Amino acid sequence: MLGGFDFDVIWRSLPYLFFEGMRFTVMLTALATAGGVVLGTLIALMRLSGLPLLPQIAALYANLMRSLPFVLVIFWFYFLIPYIGQWITGASRPIAVGAFASALITFTLFEAAYFSEIMRAGIQSIPRGQVAAGYALGLTYWQVMGYIVLPQAFRNMLPVLLTQTIILFQDTSLVYVISITDFLGAASKVAQRDGRLVEMYLFAALVYFVISFAASQVVKRLQSNTAIVAGH
Amino acid sequence: MNYNWNWGIFWQPSPEGTGTYLDMLLSGLQWTLATAAFAWVLALLLGSIVGVVRTLPSRWGGRLATAYVEFFRNIPLLVQLFLWFFVLPELLPRGAGLWLKQLPNAPFWTASVGLGFYMSARVAEQVRAGIGALPRGQAMAGRALGLTTAQVYVYVLLPMAYRIILPPLTSEFLNTIKNTSVALTIGLLELTGRARSMQEFSFQVFEAFTAATILYLLVNAVVVLGMRFLERRVAVPGYFAGK
């Protein structure tokens, strides 16, 4: 069984796994979270605005993205982004987009749909009286949102936003389907090159587990610290 | 955009020689649905057991169930499928491992079981939450009537708990269907994978993905409508009147 377990292959590939693979995974997670939260907040604001058409467009976007498998969405954007780039820049042929840029755009747009639902709940958790009070003081819409509603919404939703970030971190492994070298991609390349699938995949699972589990424990801590009513 | 649209592609024969491109996508849909159905049954079964154990007073049972949930929740699905597909057969005794590798439709069984375990951790959390949402008096009343713990769960707690968690279970079921697409990495010929092959054979990228998108949306709509019907069907008069 584990008699032939080769720890050495893990040891030898550690620099590659972490400096190449994990760096990509962490960068993608961090940037896509930042972009996704910003875009998601805008979508949530669109959805809650009483303007014509904007709420419908926002709802359509959020619901469409959330009804499709992420793998399919990754393929969609992978092939679509060069054409959109051509359209924007007016080039004569579809432009080549780097692997990281392509993945980042895809993850930001996809996760924005999920973040928008979280932010919508956060914004709706703020009593309407606060918004009315803000307007009564003569603040503009963006001032009311920027100084009163959004800071509280973020704080209330912080644990949920972080939990979604952990999910995003795990989802980044799906870039495997477009052959990008993230952490799992790096592990997989070593596994196939050296014929050490058991060692590399077990190690990859362990690393993902340790990071996700530790992060979720931190979120749990945070949750019980910020919760208004203590749990039973 | 200088892209050559060709919507007639679906009625052209696919190079696999078993029918048109449309047939190829529909067979993918069948695999998607079969895998999701099998995984969902497994997820409901395991998830219910683990969820119930988490609400029992037993200390070790609770710890074990928590460990189970954390294990399946903190490893990406793709990595879990690789563990089931590539690693498990190597760790088993030689005979059993060989049998697993040579199983007909191995990607289907691996994907179903792997996805079933993955989703079961989520179902377990819902079941636990559903039981926790019931007034404590219900379990006490059951016990006061002389029911055993098993009877309290089967006749009193679970019937109500399942009704409470029906809406989140619906989204978990939808997640199960969506997640089957990850299994294209271990060679399951499901819908997204088939759309991808159609793109490779015919170069009609956007037609292939549009068709897959529409099929997923249709399945979604059918499931949502079905579950709404089920919710109304099993609703207990007097409960959840606000909805």
Structure description:
The complex is a heterodimer of chains A (232) and B (243). By secondary structure, chain A is mainly alpha-helical. Chain A has a single domain (2-226), classed as MetI-like fold (Orthogonal Bundle), CATH 1.10.3720.10. Helices cover 79% and strands 0% of the residues of chain A. Chain A contains 8 helices and no strands. In chain A, helix 1 (7-48) runs antiparallel to helix 6 (141-171) and helix 6 (141-171) packs antiparallel against helix 8 (197-226). The N and C termini of chain A lie far apart (45 Å). The model of chain A has no long low-confidence stretch (mean pLDDT 91). Chain B is mainly alpha-helical. Chain B has a single domain (17-234), classed as MetI-like (MetI-like fold). Helix content of chain B is 75%, strand content 0%. Chain B is built from 10 helices and no strands. In chain B, helix 2 (59-73) crosses helix 5 and helix 9 (191-202) packs antiparallel against helix 10 (205-234). Chain B is globular and about 70 Å long. Chain B starts with 20 loop residues before the first helix and ends in a 9-residue tail after the last helix. The mean pLDDT of chain B is 92. At the A-B interface, helix 3 and helix 8 of A face helix 2, helix 3, helix 8, helix 9 and helix 10 of B.
